[in-house]
Amino acid sequence: MSSVNRKIINQIENSDYTPEIKELLNSLLQIEARIAEDKKPHYSEDYDRVIKNLAKKRGYREDEE
Amino acid sequence: MNLDYLQMKNFRQYQDARIEFSQSPTRNFTIIQGVMGAGKTNILNAVTWCLFGDEKHIDKKYKGLPIVNTSALSKCEGKVCEVKVELQIIQSDGKRIRVTRCENWREQNSNLSKISMQHDFSIMRETGRDWVGPIYGDDAQYIVDSLIPPSIEEYFFFDGERMNDYFRENTGKDIKSAVFKISQLELCESLISHLSARRSEYLRLSRGLSSKANDIKMIVETLEKSQESDKERLKELLRDQAEAQRIEKEYSDKLRNSSLERIESLEERRVGLEDDLERIADDIEELEKEKVQFLHKNMPIIFAFDALTKTKSLIEGRKEAGMIPPPVKTVFIDSLLKKGKCICGSDITAKDELSCTRRKRVEAFLRQSELSEMSNDLINCNVQIQAMIDQVKVFPDTSVQLGKRLRELQTLKDTKNTDVEKIKVEISQSNAENIKEWGKERDKYNEKKIKIGNEAAILNSTIGRRDNIIRARTSEFTRELKKEARHNSLVSLMTFCEEGIHAAQEVRDAIMKNVKDEICKKTSEQFLSLIWKKGTYNGVVIDDDYNISVPHVSGREGLGTLSAGERQVCALSFMAALNSVSGFDVPIIIDTPLARISNEPTRSIAENLPNYLPNKQVSLLVTDKEYTPEVKETLSKVVGKTYIINFIEKDYGGLSELVFQS
Predict the structure, then answer these.
(1) Element (H, E) at B4
(2) Is the pLDDT of residue B6 over 70?
(3) What residues of B are in contact with residue A2 (Cβ under 8 Å)?
(4) Does residue A1 surpass a pLDDT of 50?
């Protein structure tokens, strides 16, 4: 469930960025919204998960890292 | 999104009150009218308390008072009194969400106490024809926060009088913060910061992974090229050697079939001697290998011989003295101490002086036994030392034997070589010219064969050594390739982060500019239409540093000289602009929106305000003084419902009732 301002979402959607970059920003904004509301201090694992999942679409191979 | 109803039970002044908000798209205003102190602000507090568990607009005079209605609590006579606020929301898709927050209170011996509850916050959600829930705690709060983020609720539920103060004291920084909050650009800022941190982390991990694979690949390629060329050369040598051997044999056969009896026998013998020499050479090589292996096996023991015999003598000395092995096992003494009973049956729990002395003795015994436990290892070592000493006992004899055998073989080789040389000389001195020539030719090809053989042996050894180097370098190359792959993976993550950061910065900057420009434009338009001194101001300007100014038509800055009412209009315009560009579909509740504005201008505001909050459900909590007949008349086109708050009791916490008027 999103609590991210529609204006930000629209700005991203209407941009020329690649689908992976759009998805990256949307996913990370959801994490940020949750951090802001839950006062959740840790973000690294969530960020890593999103970045690596989407980077796979760009040819990144996790077993090499 | 609209508010459907607000039900308050025993909350502050309200024992049992319900507001049903107007749902009409054209009559989108709900008016709640009451005199000062009747409980208007506590309706705003009931909303924020229900949604977020916090009375965000609590008045100083209520801060020390309990949330429970004191009249209702007194009537409960020591029994539990429930405070409950229920807010039903209609989402933009028409589905309803019912949010409920409760507290239980009790009064005993004039002491008020809050009683803890298992679930004080819950929501019910409408899905299709059914209601789902209740959903409790954090899950419920997450759903509510998703509808109305708590960080920006103050821009939807606000106090008109405080808004004036807020605006008067505002700096560019506060305005920027408001724009940031309402647009949620803080999320973008955090995202950029966190994504930069991840990029730095990937950079850190990639350090030391820069690959030498290319350099190693070049070395391996050069080595392989040399290897290929040497292998070709070796093939040539072996071919030449075989050819020399074949020609040598031809001449040898000619000599053996020369029909001269002496020459035949000499050549026959020479061939036999050459075969013997080959076997002797093999035997010498084999024996030398055996000697090297023998020395490798025994030399370390010989070098450490003195140390080993000294260690052995020390261990045996301790053994003879009865110090090792341990008389009693540590584990046994340990179990006695745990039981608190000695082997003789005496108490060693240390509960009295005597028992304490006994225990100390047993503990000393334990320490000794712990030390002697190590001697078990020493005994094992001693056995191994003895085996090593036994092994080198035969070293001198075996070494002499090997040396003797080698010398014998060398002597035999020398003798056979001398014999071969003698035969060669004899054949070369033969009277028959053709025999002489054949002998010469045979010797020439024999020498050539040996020379080529030596060269081939050296080349073969070089090829073998180079093969080992190539194998090692190829393994290194594979390792470097893996490193390179890891490095490339991390670089791809860094690049992805970099692109993400760049995109987030662009999104942030674009929204900042759009939102600021839009808020500036709308604030200015609204201010000019709401302000009653027409033709006095040019509008409202928000500069790049988010400093707000209200330029006078004469050109001078007018913000500092605005009256309280004008400032409130400016703030109201700004709040309405923030709302309209917020991107959030949240209804608005304004407490005392016209408190500081005199009669004449209020009509202008009442006329224009609905135009600036289109399609928004608006609830105004107004005093009788604000809601003049003129304002009422002006707003009548947009007001859907009106409630009046009546005082019942003014003392202590007070008691009010809500009466639906129209």
Answers:
(1) strand B2-11
(2) yes
(3) 146
(4) no
Nearest to A37 among B150, B194, B515 (CB): B150
- Identify the CA nearest to B280 among candidates B116, B98, B409: B409
- In terms of C-beta density within 10 A (0-12 exposed, 13-18 middle, 19 or more buried), how is residue B482 classed? middle
Q: What local confidence, expressed as pLDDT, does residue A12 receive?
A: 92
> Which pLDDT belongs to residue B206?
80
The DSSP code for B221 is H
Give the orientation angle of helix A19-38 with respect to helix B433-530, to 10 degrees. 60
Torsion, Cα B32 B38 B44 B48, to 10 degrees, reads: -140
pLDDT at B452 over 70: yes
- Of A42, A15, A12, the closest CA to residue A24 belongs to A12
Residues B566, B547, B549, B604: is their CA dihedral positive or negative?
negative
Chain A residues with beta carbon closer than 8 angstroms to that of B183 = 5, 7-8
Q: DSSP letter string over B315-337?
A: HHHHHHTT-SS-SS-HHHHHHHH
Q: Do A28 and B146 lie within an 8 Å CB cutoff? A: no
The owner of tokens 């408190």 is B595
Q: Give the span between the Cα atoms of B80 and B98, in whole angstroms.
A: 24
- Across the strands, what pairs with B347? B341
pLDDT of residue B58: 79
Tokens representing residue B515 in the block: 């939102």
| pLDDT band at residue B175 using 50, 70 and 90 as cut-offs | low
SS (H, E, C) chain A: CCCCCHHHHHHHHCCCCCHHHHHHHHHHHHHHHHHHHHCCCCCHHHHHHHHHHHHHCCCCCHHHC
Residues 6+ apart with CB under 8 A from B580: B522, B612, B613
Inform me whether the pLDDT recorded for B169 exceeds 70. Answer: no
Helix H or strand E encompassing B251: helix B213-256
Contact B102/B117 with Cβ under 8 angstroms? yes
Q: What pLDDT, in 10s, does the model give residues B555-611?
A: 888 877 777 777 777 877 877 787 777 667 788 898 888 777 776 677 777 777 787
User: What is the distance, to the nearest Å, from the Cα of residue B16 to the centroid of all Cα atoms in its chain?
Assistant: 52
The whole-angstrom separation of Cα B387 and Cα B312 is 11
User: How far is B513 from B391, CA to CA, in rounded Å?
Assistant: 90
Q: Which pTM value belongs to this model?
A: 0.54
Q: What percent of chain B has pLDDT over 90?
A: 31
DSSP state of B205: H
Interval B69-100: pLDDT, tens: 888 888 888 888 999 999 999 988 888 999 99
* Surface of A (45-64) touching B: CB under 8 A: 47-48, 51-52, 54-55, 58-62, 64
Q: Which of B519, B523, B532 is nearest to B605 (CA)?
A: B532
Give mean pLDDT, residues B21-38: 89
